[in-house]
Amino acid sequence: MAERAATPAATSPRAGDAVGAAGAAGAVGIIGGGWAGMAAALELAQAGRVVQVFEAAPVLGGRARRVARRHPQVAGELDNGQHLLLGAYRHTLALMRRAGVDPDAALLRLPLQMAYADGWRLQAPRLPAPWHLVGMGLTARGLGWRERAALAQALSRLRAASDDDDAADTDGAGANIAGETVAAWLAQAPSSLRERLWFPLCVAALNTPAEQADARVFRRVLRDSLLAARGDSDMLVPRRDLSRLFPEAAAHAIVAAGGTVRTGAAVQAISQSPHGWLLQTHAGRQEVAQLVVATAPRQAARLLAQVPHGPHQAALQAAAAKLQAFDHVPIVTLYLNVGALRLPRPFLALDASAAAPGQFVFDRAALSTEPRASAAPDHDNVWSVVISAADDAAALPQAELARRVRAQLATQLAPWIAGAAHLADARGEFVIAERLATFRCIPGLARPGNDIGVPRLALAGDYTDGRDGAYGPYPATIEAATRSGSAAAALLQRERVPSAATA
Description:
Helix content is 32%, strand content 18%. The chain has 16 helices and 21 strands. The relative contact order is 0.19. Residues 36-491 form the Amine oxidase domain. Pfam families: Amino_oxidase (PF01593). It comes from Cupriavidus gilardii.
């Protein structure tokens, strides 16, 4: 595949000339054009550094990107999965603004909610914190007073947790949750709250079943989103494709600052040099002064493990070993042609099981108020159904998976949405299985930091530990990726790199 480079005059960061072999003195190489890599690149470019981004895929965005494939019955730009951001993603939102993207236009902001088609509903009113959570409990539908009291107690306990609790791995009641799963931590919660609130939130946030998921990480997500400013709990649904949402906008800003962004440019190997790092690509070798490895864990492990023997071999092998130990979890998204059907709200939660695997359904017509980037028809007749922690669903034949999801929608929505019963017999779906979507977020998982103890090199990705950069620990989310990218950039900026005259 030929490498493509962005130019200031390009209309897309995929257009331009083939890359040359020579590197700019003092340049920083970024391997990986996902959200972490583009965050690092934007930080460095706006700090005055010469940045060179190498992305193997034809589209920027990594594991949160636009897909090029089309389906004749499923119109519009599609992503490799339906993503949902939170108002607490302050770092990501700030980076979007710095890249020239207005989050208010690019994202549909909804109050915190968990609503099912049968009328069971929790929704935070637009009140100042913490009264929005009080109001959510008082206005809940389908919950008895016991469940409301238990919800209030759980939120109070989360609010009582301090930074000292985070450091000690205890919750707001003093219970030690180190090594605890979410299911064990919430074993005493009413079953309706577990099955319709806490466990669905856990699977959506950590992409790990509650029976396996790290309670410490889940508690951190809940604290950061539910218990800060009211807007932090808002749910933000993308109105444009994920590549345009930040990575491609960041690419234009990087190019305007004098950097380069190349897609279709896989880095096959890296090695240390007297002046930094050598990168081997199809176009030849390129030297950079510093390097950010911002690929998915398996690719990062391979690059680090294969660095030729040198003084930092032990540190490289230790980081690679941590990454190789990760277990990966798929996410499956089904885009369904539903004709003229509409959901009563932008998205609904679904009661999920092996026979009915869908967890959330989004009505993309509710998200299409912004003009599309291409001339493709508006996606006003498409629903997207999300299945996280999709080990079983990803193993099914796609036709069987689609049949189960359509039957699930027909059964669960038909009593409440006119015409939904016909979904069981309808046709026209597009299934995307992201098989290495995230790492399995289990207790005791050893994760590398941004600093792995190798000069002039930083690691970036939604899988880094984060605590050495004062963020997290977080699950594999867009916010974790951008924070990791910025932390990697800050780490390299603190290094003293010789100038071209003294190198």
